[in-house]
Amino acid sequence: MLRTIVVGSCVSVQGLFVKALENGRIVVEVNGRQFAGTPIARN
Questions:
Q1: For the whole prediction, is pTM greater than 0.90?
Q2: Of 3, 11, 18, 38, which is least surrounded by CB within 10 A?
Q3: Which of 15, 37, 13 is closest to 26 using CA atoms?
């Protein structure tokens, strides 16, 4: 499933959902690289 996260103050990353972290952030994967950030709410 595609998810979008915010990394830092102005960078967003969209990728495949990998896992949810205990602190409320999630991990997504893009081209073999994994990024952790705050998920953007889905409407």
A1: no
A2: 11
A3: 37
